[in-house]
Design goal:
Blueprint (H helix, E strand, L loop, with lengths): L2 H15 L6 H8 L3 H15 L6 E6 L2 E6 L4 H4 L12 H13 L4 H8 L4 H9 L3 E5 L7 E5 L1 H7 L5 H4 L6 H14 L28
Antiparallel strand pairs: 1-2, 3-4
């Protein structure tokens, strides 16, 4: 067995064993190989598993490599392996796509793009583990939402352009992008808040207190 074939086998085994996926840089660190060498061997493995003789493929999702069942084989695999699927409505998917493409962003941002209330959708998406939130330093300290690693694993999306191509954002979204760029500059500046204002929340964000 050649040295290159042995290295390729090691990479294959590492990807197979990493239940949550593994980054190419991590493979390089474990094997002692240079990153460019790892990438070349990965290209060979991806081509090999891309052939019709294999029922699985190697795919990078959110920067992590994993083995995935090919769509053409899924109907057979589903008879012995039941993976928990997320039941998601059209309105939830719309909100999720906006957060994925434009996040991190506030609930008001999502509602401005959608043109309707999104509190319920964001609540359910949070319960599903598809989005997370954190307090921002924007005026009123609203929550900022972004997608989680579970989102990337579930939808097997590595390049968000796959989502963008299926969406048509309105002019309001373009205006929002400009205003948010201006507001984001404040993220790097600590706000001086009077003690009398501590603990206060923005009225517009107060309903979000129920989100997990």
């Amino acid at each position: 067995m050649s040295e290159e074939l042995t290295k390729k086998a090691i990479i294959e085994a590492l990807i197979f064993s990493a239940r949550s996926g593994i980054e190419p840089s991590r493979i390089a660190a474990i094997t002692g190989m240079k990153l460019n060498q790892v990438m070349l061997l990965l290209e060979e493995l991806e081509r090999e598993y891309g052939g019709h003789e294999h029922g699985v493929m190697i795919k990078s999702v959110n920067g992590k490599l994993r083995f995935y069942t090919k769509a053409s084989i899924q109907s057979f695999v589903s008879q012995i392996s039941v993976r928990p699927l997320v039941s998601i409505t059209d309105t939830q998917m719309e909100s999720l796509a906006i957060v994925a493409v434009k996040g991190p962003l506030t609930r008001n941002d999502v509602e401005l793009i959608r043109g309707r209330s999104s509190q319920g959708q964001l609540l359910e998406l949070s319960k599903m583990g598809l989005i997370s939130k954190r307090k921002s330093r924007l005026p009123g300290r609203p929550y900022l939402y972004k997608v989680t690693s579970r989102f990337y694993e579930l939808f097997q999306v590595d390049d968000l352009k796959e989502i963008v191509n299926g969406l048509a954002f309105s002019k309001e979204e373009d205006d929002l992008e400009t205003s948010r760029d201006n507001l984001s500059d404040n993220e790097h500046v600590e706000e001086k808040v009077d003690s009398s204002d501590s603990g206060r929340e923005s009225e517009s964000e107060r309903p979000d207190r129920d989100l997990p």
